[in-house]
Amino acid sequence: MHARPAALADQLVAKHSSGPTTSPRVLVIGTAFKPGQSVIFCSPSILFAHRTQELGCRVSYIDPLVAQAAVPTVQKMQDGDFTAAHIDAHFDLVVIAMRQVGLDYEVLDHLAHAKVESFVDMYQEPQSAMRRESRCR
Predict the structure, then answer these.
(1) What predicted TM-score, i.e. pTM, was given to this entire model?
(2) CATH code at 40?
(3) Spatial CB neighbours of 41, under 8 Å, sequence gap ≥ 6
């Protein structure tokens, strides 16, 4: 269970690093174990975030149902900051790890700088958010 989130973190950081000493600033969307819940026990998203930090990335998360106290080692982005302008200014990579309720995912369609990777199921290969979104409609 722990190996797959770590492998995905390794893959995405390597893909989005701009050089050997520059790691991307990463926003992880959805840290709870399942949509509609605040429980983080055994959450692959948390394992992914921690491995991404180990790789030298500055990592934040956004999840309206998960309090900062539940994940003290990863900075929580305030819900009100979930705008294209804020994300573009502060992050290089957005990872949709789990589609949590209460977020407007259309914000991601307006990003000019930050790249988006999406894997709703941590055991699938990462996909471009645009390709996944077009399949879901």
Answers:
(1) 0.83
(2) 3.40.50.720
(3) 33
